[in-house]
Amino acid sequence: MSYQVLARKYRPHSFEELVGQEHVVQALANALTQQRLHHAYLFTGTRGVGKTTVSRILAKSLNCTGADGSGGITAQPCGVCDACRDIDAGRFVDYVELDAASNRGVEEISQLLDQAVYKPVLGRFKVYMIDEVHMLSNTAFNAMLKTLEEPPEYLKFVLATTDPQKVPPTVLSRCLQFNLRPMAPQTVQEHLVTVLAREDIAAEPGALRLIARAARGSMRDALSLADQAIAFGAGALAEAGVRQMLGAVDRGHAVRLVEALAAGDGAAVVGSVDGLRSLGLSAAGTLEEMASLLQQMAVQQAVPGALDANDPDAPAVERLASALPADETQLLYSIVVHGRAELALAPDEYSGLVMVLLRMLAFRPAGNGSAERAVARGAAAPAVVRSPVAAQPAVVAGAPALRVPAPPVRPTQRPPVARSPEPPPWVDAPDEADDDLPTAAAPPRGPIPEPMAMAVPDVVTTPLGDRWALQVRELCESGAISALVRELAMQSQCLALDESATPVRLTLRVERETLRSAANTDKLQAALAQALGRPVHLQLEAGVAEDSPARRDAAERARRQAEAEQIIHDDPLVQALMSQYKTARIVPGSVKPH
Q1: CATH of domain 251-367
Q2: What is the tens place of the pLDDT at every residue in 372-408?
């Protein structure tokens, strides 16, 4: 018997066996239990997260006949009936899997859809599964739209893609979309423990942790790497062997680098890189391991005790987290993440790694700590002398203070002030009273202008308008009206209402002629009759609606916007900033009410 790889041998055959996709399992299981079956499903997600597996389980659930042959649609397929066994084996005639990457033309799709007119041969439903559906051509998508929207009652579509952005909106709108998420490393590691226990293969926890991280959320990748590691280790998974197979950088190298950076020891940093080069370890892998370490350090600093106590690296992380301040940890993490993207631009990856690490040293705050810690230790902040003629360059943290002597000023003469003959268009013209004063000594501005009020639509409220606005809101919230019919109701004014008549007579005034079409009128009349429980006769007349639900909503939005802008304008901090900076303005439209 030929060997079957782990990814195929341990493919889930039921929703209970599916790992890491509980949100999808719950939705599909409830739909199957309640018999609320959609005709088209779209499964999205990266490779190896279970899109094809979910499709096959769904097909079995729809066609399962039970062990005794009398079963129906179920969320727990038996796995022993002919339909379940044939779908698992890939020979069920009513379950068709089409690879859109190699069958992307309109001819292949048309040939598939031509078979849709025939009822299932053996099963209860026909299930068409189109994998990598985003690879279909535009003509192929257009060819399937009508059948996808209204298929026969015995036909179900299952579409799968790793790139839903390339699927046309016309297709997305016809499907129920489920996003299968990448799996957490802990979830992958737990599943690997279960699989290897069934295979009776010894594995070190550190080896499984490396494989789970290298899989990057894909269970299929994790099982394939486990297969490779079993072959590499001659039937056993040791951490050292898996690390050598993956070319992964040992956490100890990252720890030593962070320790050298914390101590400001440039020689130790360069020596560590030389050691990595001699071992043939990847520079990108080194930065990735450092990013993971710094991320765990940041978590420990923000939430002490949040690390997994079973993680053997936790003591080192806690020690480094207490040795480095939180702001430096964030700075190092940012440099590491951006440095990974720059490795391809370096002459070689190790010189790029050296430069990234030296950049961490160069940008560390002076005194091996932040300015706040320096003040706490009693260190005096460097004095900066500002010249009244021009602004000095900004002082960078960690650099020596730059002192520029002010030019000599005669007691009877003030320093000259450079004036521009015409200010740039984006700067307000200076006040005449401020011309002879330096910028730093400019007096506060005059009265701060009030915010510009929004134009509020004129609304003449009427009792009938109150009742009509309430009725329209109930229709909209219940979903009884939508699109143009909803717009007709929102833009209309109720002029007359006679509830004593049979049917109830209702007169509305609507300005837009396109909304007063017979089709829209009939749909609104039917919705009102259903809501009131009585026949309704609706009459429309042309004219400007002065008290419509739309005008009321616009007036309410304008009122709330004005209140929000006034609150910002009256804020003491905003007042102080606008008084201090002559060109400061509140950008119109930047204030949004909650």
Answers
A1: 1.20.272.10
A2: 443 333 333 333 333 333 333 333 333 333 333 444 4
Give the C-alpha separation, 369 to 43, whole Å: 50
Assigned architecture for domain 185-246: Orthogonal Bundle (1.10)
Q: CATH: 3.30.200, 3.30.160, 3.40.1000, 3.30.300. Which one for 450-594?
A: 3.30.300
The answer, as to whether pTM is greater than 0.70, is no
Q: Which amino acid is at 512?
A: R
Buried b / exposed e across 199-236, counting CB within 10 Å, b at 16+? eebebbebbbbbbbbbbebbbbbbbbbbeebbebbeee
In order, the DSSP letters of 106-137 are HHHHHHHHHGGGSPPSSSSSEEEEEETGGGS-
Domain layout of the chain by residue ranges: 6-179, 185-246, 251-367, 450-594
Q: Are 269 and 357 in contact (CB under 8 A)?
A: yes
Please tell me the CATH code under which domain 6-179 is placed: 3.40.50.300
3-class DSSP assignment, residue 400: coil
Give the Cα separation of 8 and 4 in Å (integer). 7
CA–centroid distance for 504 within its chain: 50
- Tell me the CB-side half-sphere exposure of residue 194, using CA atoms within 13 A: 10
Instruction: Please write the tens of the pLDDT for every residue from 423-475.
Output: 544 445 444 444 444 444 444 445 566 665 555 556 778 888 888 999 999 98
DSSP-derived pairing of the beta strands 536-542 and 95-99: unpaired
Give CA–CA dist 286/303, Å, rounded.
26
Can you say whether the dihedral through the CA atoms of 561, 563, 566, 568 is positive or negative? negative
